Amino acid sequence: MEDRWLLEWIRCVKKGADDAVCRGRLIPVGDGLECESCRARYPVVRGVPVLRDAPRAQSVDWFEGHYAGRSRTHELTTDYLRQERAFMAGFLKRSNVSGPCLEIGCGTGLFAETAPGYIGLEYAIEPLMASGFEAADRICGDAQRLPLADASMECVFSFNTLEHVPEVDLAFGEIDRVLKPGGLLVLKPAWHCTRYTTELIPVRSYGELSARQKLVKALLPVIRSRPYKLLTWIPGRVYRRLTRRPDNPLKWRRLTPYYGKEWISDADAAAGIDCHESIIYYTSRGYTCDSHSSALRQLLAGHDVVILRKGGRSSIPVAEEERVPLDAARRHAEALREAGPAATPVALEPAPASGLPADRLPAASRSR
Q1: Residue 228 within any structural domain of the chain
Q2: What is the tens place of the pLDDT at every residue in 292-345?
Q3: Number of separate domains in the chain
Q4: What SS3 string covers the chain?
Q5: Which of 17, 111, 138, 202 shows the greatest Cβ crowding within 10 Å of its Cβ?
Q6: Residues 141, 68 share a domain
Q7: Who has greater pLDDT, 366 or 295?
């Protein structure tokens, strides 16, 4: 492996007898990599270091099959994550980010040109081999144990990924570990994934369902409505805010992902994550939330992009006006949510030069 720039950042992920992660530097040895500290060896496949433990068989097989034969060149011509790509390109430019920038769950690397010093991390190796992705820095690794040095990334971002991580609280902790003081964090998983989705209740017939599932199916129009969500979310969110403490633990819901053929969007989710929980997880660790600056906006947050800045001295200059959300972007996102998933995206109103182009992007297609 000749990529000296990437070697500067990657680290060993082997656990020792005391369950501590080594995090030693990796050096090229033969066709692979070796840890200078513990001598653990890692393969390099077509230029991609594979820095993970033995993969979770069922999930990795499903994702490898899902990505088999995919072309990054083709996917860049589609609408998938198009608005998110435009948002990240403008946001990183305005924020004067120079890199390195880590994308967790990079898939076929649709964001590679948008982020300076881009590093794409993916759990499955098949998408990292997609045609058109060869020139980018890529790592096959696990978000639960990121193979990167402490405080090494200027920006970490992730779209439509963290809901697939079985122990998502570990991933949140790892993000905090690798992000530099003053660094930027942009999160947009499929928030609020549900048990009824992983059980395929919306598409299965009543005859296939248990009594509990039949009741849930009958109530889906109510359960999916925004008033119901707010009524059920807000009390718990208020309680969590009132009882939070420094280094607040992440509260999330474990789901049983579905990997069969009758797949629907988010049926393969392993975690139900509340965006408000994510905000208080990081703000209790000294982060500021640039996308949801007031307590009220945080309490009312839905399927939003969450933008946070880590505490500590920053090398990234930020103008005060960049914290001001755009009403046009908010109206655009709300209109799409009200119209439902089949809505056709409409043109975003021109943004003032001094503001964020969108602190709340529409809930676009959530699964890869």
Answers
A1: yes
A2: 999 999 999 989 999 999 998 655 554 433 333 334 334 434 443 444 433 333
A3: 2
A4: CCCHHHHCCEECCCECCCCCECCCEEEEECCEEEECCCCCEEEEECCEEEECCCCCHHHHHHHHHHHCCCEHHHHCCCCCCHHHHHHHHHHHHHCCCCCCEEEECCCCCCCCCCCCCEEEEECCCHHHHCECCCCCEEEEEECCECCECCCCEEEEEEECCHHHCCCHHHHHHHHHHHEEEEEEEEEECCCCCCHHHHCCCCCCCHHHCCHHHHHHHHCHHHHCCHHHHHHHHHHHHHHHHHHCCCCCCCCCEECCCCCCCCCCCCCCCCEECCHHHHHHHHHCCCCEECCCCCHHHHHCCCCCCEEEECCCCCCCCCCHHHHCCCHHHHHHHHHHHHHCCCCCCCCCCCCCCCCCCCCCCCCCCCCC
A5: 138
A6: yes
A7: 295
